Amino acid sequence: MILRLALALLAVPVLVLLAPSGLRAAPVTTDRLDNGMQIVVIEDHRAPVVVHMVWYRIGAADEDPGHSGIAHFLEHLMFQGTQQLEPGEFSRIVEAQGGNDNAFTTPDYTAYFQRVAADRLGLMMRLEADRMRNLNLTEQDVDTERAVILDERNQRTDSDPGSLFREQMMAAQYLNHPYGIPVIGWRHEIEQLSRQDALDFYQANYAPNNAILVVAGDVQPGEVLALARATYGPLPPSDRIRPRSRPTEPPQLAERRVQFVDERVSDPYVMRTYLAPERNPGDQRKAAALTILSELLGGNATTAVLARALQFDTQQAVYTGAYYDGLSLDATTFGLIVAPPPGQGLKETEAAMDGVLARFLADGVNAEDLARIKAQIRAETIYGDDNTQGLARKYGAALSIGLTVQDIRDWPDILQSVTAEEVMAAAREVLDRKRAVTGWLTAREEAP
Amino acid sequence: MIAAALRMVAVLAVMAWPAMAEIRIQEVTSPGGIRAWLVEDHNIAFTAMNIRFLGGTSLDDPARRGAVNLMTALIEEGSGEMDAQAFARARDGLAADFRFDSDLDGVGVSARFLTENRDAALDLLHQALTRPRFDPDAIERVRGQVMSVLRGKAKDPEAIASQALMARAFGSHPYGSDGTGTEASVTALTRDDVVAAWKGALARDRIFVAVAGDVTAAELGPMLDRLLGDLPATGLAQPGRAALNAQGGIEQIGFPGPQSSIGFYQGGIRFEDPDYFAAAVLNEIIGGDRFNSRLMDELREKRGLTYGVGTGLAAFDHGEMLSGRLATANDRVGEAIQVIRDQWADIAAHGVTQAELDAAKTYMTGAYPLRFDGNGRIASILVGMQILGLPVDYPATRNQRIAAVTLADVARVAKRLIRPEQLFFVVVGDARL
Prior knowledge:
heterodimer, A: 448 residues, alpha+beta, 7-stranded mixed sheet, 5-stranded mixed sheet, B: 433 residues, Cytochrome Bc1 Complex, Chain A, domain 1, 6-stranded mixed sheet, 16 helices
């Protein structure tokens, strides 16, 4: 995910994803405007705050060949004014309300949000509706923003060997699908992106019938619907929205290997990603099993299978982790990371990781581990209720990739009902090195 | 037409007083004399607790730098009859969440636990705080992780810049060195050092507690005694005031890569200072938490020099500074620094405009109530308020203090606080200066 502004950049090169929870005690209301805009309202009356989000079903993986980064570039340019607003005025108005605004782009969607006092919701909707159709860009604003994005790429990718490494890994993982192209774009293509490219992408994709409105906080659904009808309602739907069809992966028949050498690497590590199925409408069981599998293998720094074997029973790692996120439109990845202690080579480290996987595939799931993970997932649904913005994001992301509200509601129960047999079946299917990329990140070249 | 309407609404809303969170803070004193602040919220069946022990890594014996940090990381690695594995299983089985961290001013504990097994979760947390095992194998495992963190910092330009800045600013005071320690000092730490750090840092004479969530004041008192009552009464002496080296200049540290990480600072202002709120507004105008600060506008919006730049009034417990950071392409570092220097000179000489002041004040007063939107965040804010010595009604009065800041106040503070000759820059990267 690429934010318009992220001052606090993560130093740790790993994201350990806890299973998301969709179920919530507070009411969730859904509706749809006549122009096709989907609406979700999540009520939380504990504080006089509202989060207003508009999600577009368009992301970096929908870009035309040669135009990598245009989705994210446009996301930045959406703050550069409309026919009625000057550049930067959008954020100035939000800030004058004491609010914060930001936006982010992923391979599958682009989202814009503001967090403000609940009684300012109508103004936010008018602003957001205005820039859905009335964007106005000057050549100079586009040139300046391109420089900002190149700085962003410098800061987030080119200055971080772990980031460059993951970019190379993803490029190797996908033989045909555009998930292999970074969201921020390849530098040489970003440099060529023009004002017209941005406007073309905007006009082809930004319309109410390609958007989802998520409002979460101290609001009444009826009032939200009335405001939405008044602000977004008059916008005409676009007849240019195309169904999303992307190049798909051919059968992957051979493991790929990447060794990325960069003198700025402090601690080398081994990373492996496997091509893995994602959550699909009405079909989430395998993704649920993979979610549990990632928790079992690497979700907990102490009790997970990899941590126990490589950090406690032996001292063959200083860090281990597994990650999987099924919230993806097309085939996603299941990842493993093992960082060795100083002096231990990556060949030995990779062998140790594979040894743990082989034993896990032979021994199966420990019933006590499975029960503990399910208890934690259940608790996360309670703790998750404390974070309204997080809930709003879960709904927005899931709906953006085509899941239904019912799918979101079903997800926690599906996770609870996953059996040990399903976890092992998913593990045997996905942990296949023919569909994997094995990467070494090192400061100095190591012999394979 | 739409344009006029939009601006009209914006102007009207600026004048309206922002919605205020109704945060009802209760002061609770346990039968054993431990004080805590509480916000009851029975909407969700869990409780968040935040505890801070003042001192933190600044309590380290200079010869044993990193002891408090290593100790804090070991609290969840086994206690009582449980080794690290058993403790993690017990905690996860209760679905409780405990986090322990240390920084230059304190050791923090943040906990979330479900109402359905609250007593068991608190007993487990009590065991971790009062009966840590510090098993030799756990010490070696966590020491290995700390060493990995240190190696990572040594190759992270932002971490290098921030450490160089603190070293230049605070010299031999504990603030001037990394509380994580050095590879040499962490290698040399013994179990005795870790035990001494535990006894010295987690004591009742330096504790601040706040709780938010599904618990009543009557229930909280006995909980506090059970959790914290048998900690040592006193601990290690706190460090003294940290004198700031406020001589301007520039320091470069070479580092490969396309861009440079830049940190900068000058003298700051204490929270107790009558002009603190005016200074906070001024900082918000210069480089605060928004897209439309002076520096964001001059560096990013006008010139595309950086992805982001920000400043902050760092008011530590024993010293203050006004500091900022950004990153920019190597061939534009000189230009970026000059833009910052020009802004400093301009603000010192001319202050800010009424429009800038109004925008900052409406942002700050509007944003404040939005902070209190979850049990975990409320508990953390309440601990911070207690440390600053604020009264329980502070949330109801804070916006008035911001609103009372006038253009004359900001001009006075700008003249006094903004000191171009004090600006010191640390540049980490291969820029040619």
